[in-house]
């Protein structure tokens, strides 16, 4: 039997997000990326004796914004704790985080519940030198303390994810939601968003959780999906062979698609949490919550996708495509408004032109910065609906719009791309020529095989250079052959 029928994966995600503040969480050092190592440090973020932390108010507002975006309960009073551990990237020997009284609890994003959202500070960055970096015959690791103290939120989901594909998809939704709120640039390549996955499997139908393992710091959507899938397969293999799963932290190597143990999984008592003595409780006042609410976008990606799907009739995939790239959604809505969605053009038809525009631009280009104004794309879609131009000719017009901009109607007139109507004698003559050119296909159509009509339609479309309406050509051919 397959793993799908025997076992059910149960996955929870822990996401660390660097906040887009100017300064660090508890000091005035600048938050930067790519600057020379150890140039943005001070006694506070280095943990020198006598240095005292001060909470970054902007980071607190961003934390509340995230909680509101995920429909969390915002704690009026939350606590900072010391999380003790001893690694080279942790200069103080402890991390200031939140433990049993976090800033946000009990939220939801899509079909996955959010367990908690809490504030903390980031560790420094370890840079490892391999064989080429040996010094006096030994491998070395260097510590860059610029990142130490950068404001973080940790977002912990409930174990509501049940496949590697769902994990990747949900993380993408979360990332885009955070990006559109403006709290982080969520650039995984720069470490602004890092994801850990807690993975376990259990027999299908069981409600008890299996022993979980943790995959650390997967820095791309592809690596997350591949790593989770590899760990699911590994755990299923162990259980099938009668072995048990050991609770531990694992590293996934995407080059070899392999998993290696890093250390045994820590529990809360291993960190010896206790309230941070140098910080008073954090109060999220009504004014703080209201300011955070006002700073949020009027509509978040999940809500926008739902509106596109349920009010405008877009399919779920297209709705998400437009809603999760805000620039595409904005462009689409401007084009729809320009031509009037109540009759000027079908929203579904217009939405289908957006990917064709994107294909003609550079990868990830913002169409609002192209030569094609939203009003021009809307007008082109309306011309197709009104059969002023065929769909094939409209694609040619779109290419010209990308290259030179302008009014699609002027391009159609200048290039002679206007649709040939069914009433024109020339179109009827071309249909007769198409039938005469392929008597075999014509006979199949007469016999009721409508799939054979393709070559006949194609003949007419080639001769008219795409100006004829394919639907009208098909109708004329069927009239001639079925009435003969």
Note down, in words, how this protein is organized.
- The protein has helices at residues 3-6, 57-69, 164-181, 221-240, 268-271, 286-295, 301-310, 316-323, 326-339, 347-360, 374-385, 391-404, 408-415, 425-437, 439-446, 454-463, 470-482, and strands at residues 7-18, 73-74, 77-78, 81-84, 94-97, 104-109, 112-121, 125-128, 141-144, 151-157, 193-203, 213-218, 248-253, 258-264, 274-275, 282-283.
- It is an alpha+beta fold.
- It has 3 domains: 3-294, no CATH class; 298-415, no CATH class; 425-482, Orthogonal Bundle (Arc Repressor Mutant, subunit A).
- The strands form 4 sheets. A 9-stranded mixed sheet has the order 2-6-7-10-1-11-12-13-14.
- The two termini are 58 Å apart.
- The relative contact order is 0.09.
- The model has no long low-confidence stretch (mean pLDDT 84).
Percent of sequence in beta strands: 15-25%
- N- to C-terminal separation? 58 Å
Radius of gyration: 30 Å
Number of domains: 3
Strands side by side in the biggest sheet:
2-6-7-10-1-11-12-13-14
Q: How many β-strand stretches?
A: 16
Biggest sheet layout: 9 strands, mixed
Question: Helices and strands: which structural class?
Answer: alpha+beta
Helix content: 25-40%
- Number of DSSP helical runs: 17
Q: Write down the overall mean pLDDT.
A: 84
| Mass-distribution shape | elongated
What is the subunit organization of this protein?
single chain
Unreliable sequence segments: none
Spell out the key features of this protein:
Arc Repressor Mutant, subunit A; 3 domains; 17 helices; 16 strands; three-stranded antiparallel β-sheet; alpha+beta; 484 residues; 18% strand; 40% helix
